[in-house]
TrEMBL record:
Belongs to the ABC transporter superfamily. This is Phosphonate C-P lyase system protein PhnL. It comes from Roseibium aestuarii. GO terms for molecular function: lyase activity. Gene3D superfamilies: P-loop containing nucleotide triphosphate hydrolases. Keywords: ATP-binding, Lyase, Nucleotide-binding. The gene is phnL.
Length: 233
């Protein structure tokens, strides 16, 4: 399967401006790639830099060195490390999705519309987007009586499942999974495993952080140990 995401010699150092410019090197020489149709999981102990790598790929953290190459179209490869903010926004719109456990609640927007929105912005018609949103909410066992309500008052677990539905609904060639199953029950963890399998079958390249050993064993095609990228002392 073709490569969709490739990190070359990536490095990140945090500079603490309020602490006399103290510098905290987190990762260096990060080299790996993710192919279409596979799910790669970042492993390693707490503080090793897994989230920092994911955040650099999504453009939340600046990448200090190296290249983060993503294939947007067969003839368009973009280096996220040097992408302008506008280009990064375009990538988030059509190329890279991010599924986390936390829902950013939008006031007065129903759960159904929160879930349908990423597909609508990718150009799907309203009927298709809402049908897919209903399907995902129902698969993730969000009670139908909640679909027309804004998720602000939902329980933590319900909000999390709305967020997962929102993360999986659109058709991104690259999907970042940031602890998507944290605190889900076994039945809903199994649904997420199935959703990941379906994305693999569609050729989506996924990179994740998953502390849940059982889910990791079921979805990881490869585990990359981030301690290998520890900066030299
Ligand atoms: N915005 C930031 N400013 C300063 N230091 C940061 C920042 N983000 C992360 N770090 C530091 O970088 C190191 C790696 O953090 P990161 O969250 O990437 O690790 P992780 O492997 O994802 O850990 P965990 O498994 O606990 O989530 C930590 O020492 C953390 O304190």
């Amino acid at each position: 399967m073709p490569v969709r995401l490739c990190l070359n010699a990536v490095a990140k150092t945090f500079v603490m401006h309020l602490q006399d410019g103290l510098s905290l090197p987190v990762v260096a020489n990060v080299d790996f790639s993710v192919n279409a149709g596979e799910c790669v999981v970042l492993g390693g102990p707490s503080g090793a830099g897994k989230s920092s790598i994911l955040k650099m790929i999504y453009g939340n953290y600046r990448c200090d060195e190296g290249q983060i190459l993503v294939v947007r179209k067969p003839d368009e490869i973009i280096d996220i490390a040097h992408a302008a903010p506008r280009r990064m926004l375009a990538l988030r719109h059509d190329t890279i999705g991010y599924v986390s456990q936390f829902l950013r609640v939008i006031p007065r927007v129903s759960a159904l519309d929160v879930v349908a929105e990423p597909l609508l912005t990718q150009g799907a018609d309203e009927e298709t987007a809402r049908a897919r949103a209903r399907d995902l909410l129902s698969r993730l066992n969000v009670p139908e009586r909640l679909w027309s309500l804004p998720p602000a008052t939902f329980s933590g677990g319900e909000q999390q499942r709305v967020n997962i539905a929102r993360g999986f609904i659109a058709d991104y060639p690259v999907l970042l999974l940031d602890e998507p199953t944290a605190s889900l029950d076994a039945a809903n963890r199994a649904v997420v495993v199935k959703l990941v399998d379906e994305k693999k079958a569609q050729g989506v390249a996924m990179l994740g952080i998953l502390h849940d050993q059982d889910v990791r064993d079921r979805i990881a095609d490869r585990i990359i140990d981030v301690t290998a990228f520890r900066p030299a002392a």
